[in-house]
User: What shape does this take?
Amino acid sequence: MPWLGSQGPFEVAYTLIDQSSSKIYLDAPYVTVSWQRGQRWVFMEWKAWANTPKLREAHELALKAIRENRASSMLVDQRRGRVIVDEDQLWMASDWVPRAA
Assistant: This one.
């Protein structure tokens, strides 16, 4: 990893995000999903806990962003998110991740 000085990796990532060059797929009270053109990644920022339908909707929109933009990377900020229930963890591992790969 390159030297980050006094900044951690998340602070560096946030300085790289240019909102004027992003395409928003979802901006809800609990999450924002966007395509960052300058970095060529999908960015998912969790702002609060989300129930199963909302969590899956956000992930489906992230998958749409990945496919539409041929993204090879995704950055997820889960710091303000909450625990993901076992059922949703299983869904992500067995269903969503294989489709996103």
User: Anything to note?
Assistant: Strands lie at 22-27, 31-36, 41-46, 73-77. Confidence is low (pLDDT under 50) at residues 1-7. The radius of gyration is 14 Å. Helices lie at 9-16, 52-69, 86-100.
